[in-house]
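lol ok so funny story. i was supposed to be doing the assay writeup but got distracted and ended up predicting the structure for this chain instead. priorities right. anyway since i did it might as well share w the group, maybe its usefull for someone
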Amino acid sequence: MTPLMQFLNTNAGAVTALLTAVLMLTTVFYAIVTYWLFRETRLARLSTEAPEVVAYLRPHERHISALTVHIENIGLGPAYDVQVFFEFSRGDAEKYQLQHLPVEPRHLTNVMPTRSMLKTNMGTYYELVEKEGEISPFKIHLRYKDRGGRNRRFVETFSPRTFEWLSVLGKPVTEEIAESLQESTKSLSQIANNTRAPRP
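and the output, tada:
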């Protein structure tokens, strides 16, 4: 009998216990690795479905001198319990009568699907900058939750001075073009009616 076999026969209980411990440690190791893989996969999936609610200013579609606040979910998942509030310098909200822009958190919607948008009129450039002196830069705060219930937020500073070109009142270029085409069509119709040959 070889020395190895003799050793195993003599210490069979100890060898069995050692191999059992190694097997148990291997099982625990694979369980931990499986858990971390599951966790990372779940986090990756949630990150691809995370909402991203942002705010920005745009000129009004028809009244080009007016500013509108757009709040949009540009993420890939729905946002829940969306709240908004505006942080103005002292006196600006009262001076410009911006009561419809809340200075305390206001609930907007329970669920905001992806690619959905809410908007509100902020006022004209004349009211915000030229009427009683320029309104100071202000902040828009957004608070919302993702599918997992985690709190998320958005904060951005805006200045109406960025839209100084809106002080030139007028209609959108597309509307002016459409009206010009309508006038041209009417003029051509009148010319065509006036140049018809009289009936015999």
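The chain has five helices and seven strands. The longest strand covers residues 79-87.
back to the writeup now i swear
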